[in-house]
Amino acid sequence: MGLDYQLVLWNKYKKAYDKIIIISMLLYIILFAAITLIFNSETTIETLVIRAFGSLAIIMLNIILIIGPLARLNSNFLPILYNRRHLGVSMFIAAFIHGGFSIFQFHALGDVNPIYSIFTSNMDYNSLTNFPFQVLGFIALLILFAMASTSHDFFLGNLSAKVWKRLHMMVYFAYALIIAHMFLGAFQQETSPLTIGIMTIGFFTVASLHLITAFKEQKIDSMKMEEQEGWLKVCTISEIEEDRAKIFTVKNQRVAVFKYNGKLSAIHNVCKHQGGPLGEGKIIDGCITCPWHGYQYLPSNGQSPPPFTEKVATYQLKLEGDMIYINPEAFDEGTEVEPCNY
Amino acid sequence: MKKNDEFYVPYIEGSLGVKTKQSLKRFVLSAVGLIIITALVFSFSQNQFKNATFELLSETKITGTFHESPYPMLRVHVAKDTYKNILLLGFGKFSANPYLEKLQHEIPDLNGKTLTIEGNLIYYNGKTLIQITNDEKVSLTKNTNTKLPEKTTISEMTLQGEIIDPKCYFGVMKPGKGKIHRSCAVRCISGGIPPVLATNDDNNIATYYLLTDLNGNAINQDILPFIGKPSEITGTIEKMEDWYLLKISPEHINVKSEVSNIY
Amino acid sequence: MTSGLRKAHKFIWLLLIITVPIIMFFSVKDLEFFTDKQAKEMSFELGDYRIVATDENEVLKAAILKNEDSIKIDIEIKTPLKASSAEVYELNQNKEKGRFLGPMSKAKTYSFYLNNDATGILVFDTLKGTEITKLIF
User: Fold this and answer.
1) Average pLDDT of C2-28?
2) Is the CB of A130 less than 8 angstroms away from the CB of B229?
3) Are residues B132 and B157 in the same domain?
4) Which residue from A minimizes the CA distance to B92?
5) In this complex, which of A11, A76, A134 lies closest to B19 when CB atoms are compared?
6) What's the CATH number for C50-136?
7) Is the separation of the CB atoms in B149 and B241 below 8 Å?
8) Is residue A213 a contact partner of residue A72, using CB atoms and an 8 Å limit?
9) Which residue has the higher pLDDT, A139 or B8?
């Protein structure tokens, strides 16, 4: 949430996170190289690099892709989500080494431009098993590059959260391309039930976690609330924990109703930073704090405390006895609304 | 959403709760476990690499009779009445021709002349090739004509195998065949490296055939769609000392759907 | 995330869980998972010869065969030699490089006739000027 963009705002968790990433990547590469050099010593260094980094990248991508749904299903995993982009950039670096070595080895030093060669050296576009699988990997690498190079908050701010999120959702397309790249490439020649099995299990794990989460979320979105003279019945005060919120769907939008210091306030549930669920956040120092990256908003007006400038929409609440009601019409982002006192 | 009293805020010291820490630890341990298991699986499930050799870092000097039949070769005397025909190749994915041009300015027809070439040897299973990277390392040793190797026609036959580029297959890349390598083989053969049909018989004995067109001339661009795929090719076999040649027409190449059995 | 993004996610993953397994299935259905690419065990053709001695190392297997009037050696190259050329020489009585027997190239069985007083064979890489292997009998 900085106004000035620093390359990375380091803290001890980020450092620990990155240390784990680097050590794990090294562990993989060293193990892969050592086993190959000991048990299959006639390898060439290029092949070793291509295979080690390629397989590392896809394994990392599988791990990256389960973090999202895992954090939705269990908030204990949120700190992993918090620095997921570091993992993403590291994965891109591994994929880039794989792609760079492959493009150089297979397409460079020839009679045409290597990039042109990727698309034209194998023209069996009408066949499945003979399909030019390198094209798939190349497109996936371009997507990963676009994502890695815009992963910093600088781009998030400049591209707008919506465009940024759309761009970064391309990772699912890249994931499918990479699976096809492996199945139509490496697995056609290096056929092993173990590697094919691992990739298949990996895909179904990732896909089912996403779908389980999606259907759970859909339930919340399709929640119907009772209407009374233009106001929607929310819940009783006691159903909300202190300094926490409950999330309700109002006119297709999720709204978080917070309870704090004997007051009630409602704001739009979507954080301006990366769309984190504010209603799963907590009131800290009088501010609603997003569970994803700690962005903060004042409950009474949906504005980030100065010097920050993020604003979210606010909603009017009323109390009838113990029952909370909400006006489904949102106010403009950052509109001051008197909290309900109880 | 699971009930959770802990709330981690990255910039608040000490907000990482015990339960969250435990979950993180579990996640990290599982990820590291996955890394170890997959490293084992992916490294151990690689096919065994061949002992093909590319002497990238050392150069060998060879002297012999130059001939283009139709691909540039050097016929090197290795023992009494015994010659080894060494295929000449250029740097990268190119033929040796550009490296001979300088000498061809002085002597237009190098056929039969004795040349000395220093380059990187590539060899596997009885076949030897040499990569030339510098035209200064090709020199004329004797300007008199020496006898060229004779070609004898054997028969017309239908062979099963895979068209490979010999530079990669005999040493530069591993694996230098099959689907993963196909694009590279196409680039090599397109760049003038002679195409070779690698075959393997029922007893697992390999035979290699240099491919030419029906007139015995070099064939490169016409066979690009068939490279790196198990194929059945009908053509006329000729023997030229330690090499076989196969005269083919691209219409007589049938791509098969089975897995390649060359090694 | 907004409800639109949530819908997009659900739609994308429904699409992927249908299409990706189809690609996976059709790309592996014709693959041979368990091919036995082991070379067949080669055996020496004896005829009226009898085996006098055999020797074997990692790359070669050799047998000295004798009949009434000649001695020959059968050499089987088990896996391709790692050599730029391979010329076979007889080792004379002083166990030195003697008569040239012939060249070897690809992996298969080669046969050479020997002098009665041969003490072994030497396989020599002429291009590189190095000794590949030596068998003394």
Assistant:
1) 93
2) yes
3) no
4) A109
5) A76
6) 2.60.40
7) yes
8) yes
9) A139
Domains and CATH numbers, chain A: 12-221 (no CATH), 227-341 (2.102.10.10)
Please determine, for the modelled complex, whether the ipTM score is greater than 0.90: yes
Domain limits for position B223 = 152-255
Q: Is A141 exposed, middle or buried (0-12, 13-18, 19+ CB in 10 A)?
A: buried
Of all residues in chain A, what percent are helix, strand and coil, respectively (each to 5)? 55, 15, 30
Q: What is the CATH number of the domain that holds B156?
A: 2.40.50
Q: Which of B142, B169, B186 is where one domain is finished?
A: B142
A50-102: per-residue pLDDT in tens? 999 999 999 999 999 999 999 989 988 988 988 899 999 999 999 999 999 99
Tell me if chain A has a CB within 8 Å of the CB of B50: yes
**For residue A252, which residues of chain C lie inside 8 Å, CB to CB?**
3
**Which pTM was predicted?**
0.93
pLDDT of the residue at A1: 43
Closest CA–CA distance from residue B242 to any residue of chain C (Å): 9
Of B12, B43, B92, the CB nearest to A109: B92
Asked if residue B130 and residue B179 are part of one domain, the reply reads: no
A126 to chain C, minimum CA–CA distance in Å?
Answer: 14
- Using an 8 Å CB-CB cutoff, list chain A residues near C21: 203
CB contact under 8 A, B31 and A117: no
Per domain, the residue ranges of chain C are 50-136
Quick check: A250 and A259 in contact, CB under 8 A? no
Residues 6 or more apart in contact with residue B193 via CB below 8 angstroms: B89, B90, B93, B94, B95, B165, B166, B167
Is A207 within 8 Å of A175 (Cβ atoms)? Answer: no
Same domain, B131 and B184: no
**How high does pLDDT run on average in chain A?**
92
**In angstroms, rounded to a whole number, what is the distance separating the alpha carbons of residues B238 and B244?**
6
- Beta carbon pairs, A and C, within 8 Å: 80
Residue range B129-150: mean pLDDT, rounded: 95
Q: Do C27 and A275 touch (CB under 8 A)?
A: no
The last residue of a domain, from among B108, B142, B176: B142
What's the total number of domains in chain B?
Answer: 2
What is d(CA C89, CA C100) in angstroms, rounded to the nearest whole number?
4
Question: Can you say how many angstroms the Cα of residue B197 is from the centroid of all Cα atoms in its chain?
Answer: 11
